[in-house]
Amino acid sequence: MLPDYIVKILTTLTKKNFQTYVVGGSVRDILMKKIPNDWDITTNALPTEILEIFPGSKYQNDFGTVILPLKDENDKVIEVIEITTYRSEKGYSDRRRPDEVKFETHLDKDLERRDLTINALAMDAKGEITDLFGGLKDINKKIIRAVGEPVDRFKEDALRMLRAIRLSSQLNFEIEPKTERGIIKMASGLKFISQERIRDELIKMLKTSKPAEAILRLHKNKLLQYIIPELEQAVGVKQNHHHIYTVFDHSWRSLETCPSLDWRVKLASLLHDIGKPKSKKIIAGKATFYNHEYIGAKITDRILKRLKFKNEDREKIVGLIRNHMFYYNVDEVTAASVRRLIKKVGKENLKDLIDLRIADRLGSGTPKAKPYKLRHLEYMMEKVQNDPISVKMLEISGDDLIKDLKFSPGPKIGAILDVLLSRVIDNPNLNKKSELLVLAKKLEEKPLEKLREEAREVISEKNEEIDKKIKNEFYV
User: Fold this and answer.
1) Number of structural domains the chain divides into
2) In this structure, are residues 385 and 342 in contact, taking their beta carbons and an 8 Å threshold?
3) pTM, entire model
4) DSSP per-residue codes, 249-285
């Protein structure tokens, strides 16, 4: 049941005549035959007493939690255990932390301050369970229930509402009606929670096996409007004849069918059409959503900045949304076009972009996830992925132009390399130093602005054609 090192910590405290238990989600996981992610221990020993019993432990807060790092034979920290003194709490003026913490001597006082019954379970070193609030019964019935009065629990810390939603999806449990009413009543309390804490819970939801269910519960329980109000604006927005669902329904269905396990791709699948409500126009009696991918990318960028996502994650998600309408027709798109696509989205994002397209298709009610042309695109990507798509991949450099052709250092060299790249993207066989030197010598005769214009035109020309074809084919 409990790992040996946890039993050792419990028995060490017990031998010193202190009560001690494993508590919270780790007990729930054990009872559900899952592997706990972390371990929390509670005891009636005071922090000063815990520090004396466990050399190397640290106490740097006002909430009775002592940090005990566990190390391997090389003195490397392999896990961190939290040991917290029994406590009761009073007042939550900031809707997050208690204004007053009182150390207690009995376990019941500690358990009654916890959020959900399934998290208010305690287990001793022998594996015996203490269950004061019906957590075992709720696990068996697959129910999420607040400890005591739900409104009081959610008033203490509004993030508990998101945790209840996340666990309901993660464990495939139903939220008990009174608890759900408490969430709806206290939903506005999310306004007092930091964006970072909300972001972390959202990511955990996306990592569950049923992320779409979590999003629907957020919507149903009036929480989504305080997290991603832009997505709420998609509710009821009808689409054209190519789509049988509203924008909101298509969005969560795309998340539900997304084949990727990467939470960033899942989030991109949820938000990929978030620009549609802003771009919707009725032309000749039909709904159109021209440029919704670019509008959606900007909206998503604002959302992710607001929620304090890491820059690298934000850039990846925004890039996937901006490029999710890429056009590909086996008979029309050449290897050069595929190289341009790779240059545009990055080789590392190719699979994710295809997974997003699959999610988009399945979320539209299309039964076939990967038609022939998508399989052909994968083949072409594999075929050309090592072809030159950046200046660094050219068989020539600025130093070569200076050394072999006696060019003067300056911005013109960069412009010449850009033009050479545009030529090589169209024809990778040109990527030989001798041929590139001949081409460069001819290009050197052109003015700088002319070179820059040529590079821009050649590289972007096909993308513009593709964008037009997208709009014609999909009427978006």
Assistant:
1) 4
2) yes
3) 0.78
4) HHHHHHHHH-----HHHHHHHHHTTTTHHHH-EEETT
Rounded CA-CA distance 195/304 in Å is 10
Tokens of 174: 């139903």
Do 397 and 446 lie in one domain? The reply is yes
CB 237 within 8 A of CB 247: yes
Percent helix / strand / coil, the chain, rounded to 5: 55, 10, 35
Which helix (H) or strand (E) segment is 143 a member of?
A: strand 143-144
Out of 387, 418, 450, a domain closes at 387
Cα–Cα distance between 458 and 437 in angstroms, integer?
Answer: 20
Q: Specify the DSSP element, H or E, that contains 65.
A: strand 65-71
Confidence at residue 276, expressed as pLDDT on a 0 to 100 scale:
94
437 Cα distance to chain centroid: 46
More confident residue, 417 or 380: 417
Domain end residue (candidates: 387, 410, 440): 387
Convert the pLDDT of each residue in 444-461 to its tens digit. Answer: 888 878 777 776 665 554
Taking every pair of C-alpha atoms in the chain, what is the biggest distance, in angstroms?
89
Q: What is the pLDDT of residues 301-337, one digit of tens each?
A: 999 999 999 999 999 999 999 988 876 554 556 666 6
Q: How far apart are CA 189 and CA 323, in angstroms?
A: 36
> Any idea what the CATH number is for the domain that residue 214 is in?
1.10.110.30
Termini Cα distance of the chain = 56
DSSP state at residue 170: H
Buried b (16+ CB within 10 A) or exposed e, 262-298: ebbbbbbbbbbbbbbbbbbeeeeeebbbbbbbbbbbe
Nearest to 273 by CA among 470, 253, 286, 463: 253
Residues 273 and 335 in one domain: yes
